[in-house]
Amino acid sequence: MNEPFSMPDASGDPLAILATASLIGFFSIRDSNGNPTDPVSLGSGTLVRLPGDIFGVLTAAHVLDEIPTSGLLGFLTFTRQDSVQQAKIDAQLTEKFYPPGWGPGEVMPDFGFLQIHDRDALSTIRARGCAFYDLEKRREIRGMTSNKLAWEYYATGVVGESRIEIPAGADGSPKRTSFTAMAGHCSEVAKSTIGGFTIVNVQVETDRHPTTYGGVSGGGLWVITAPDGEFDKVQRFLTGVIFYQSDATDDGNRSIRAHGLDDIQAILISQFRA
Question: pTM of the prediction?
Answer without folding.
Answer: 0.88
